[in-house]
Amino acid sequence: MASAARHEAFRVLFEDIRVKWQWYDSELIRFRQLWKEGVGIRELAREFQTNARSIALVVIDQAEQGYIEKRPGGLFGN
Questions:
Q1: Average pLDDT over residues 17-25
Q2: pTM score > 0.85 for this model?
Q3: With contact defined as beta carbons under 8 Å apart, do 50 and 20 qualify?
Q4: Which end of the chain is more exposed for a tag (fewer CB within 10 A), N or C?
Q5: Residue 26: is it exposed, middle or buried by C-beta count within 10 angstroms (0-12/13-18/19+)?
Q6: What is the mean predicted confidence (pLDDT) over 6-14?
Q7: What Rg do the C-alpha atoms of the chain give, in angstroms?
Q8: Three-class SS of residue 3?
Q9: How far is it, in rounded angstroms, from Cα 2 to Cα 20?
């Protein structure tokens, strides 16, 4: 049985937003250290010369892989 074709608009997420998709291992190690120290998302974005969206995505990635844990203050840090 073939599925019916969808006739609705869709949106590609982050299509028009600059996102840092590639991270060096040394950057990830530094990120984990700063995360553990409680550095907030905006400060992390400045440290890695990127934007808060990129930091939010690396937080998700690193948490899913078990490299970082939830912390007091969440993305906003201590």
A1: 91
A2: no
A3: yes
A4: N
A5: exposed
A6: 83
A7: 16
A8: coil
A9: 38
Both tokens of residue 48? Answer: 């890695």
Identify the residue whose tokens are 């998700």: 60
Q: 42 CB contacts (<8 Å, ≥6 apart)?
A: 52
How far apart are the two ends of the chain, measured CA to CA in Å? Answer: 54
| Cβ neighbours of residue 34 closer than 8 Å, sequence gap 6 or more | 43, 44, 47
Helical packing angle, 25-37 and 52-64, nearest 10°: 90
Span 66-74, mean pLDDT? 94
pLDDT at residue 7, as a whole number: 83
Distances (CA, A) of 12 to 15, 30, 34, 56, 71: 6, 30, 31, 18, 31
CB 12 within 8 A of CB 20: no
Distance (Å, rounded) from C-alpha 13 to C-alpha 19?
A: 11
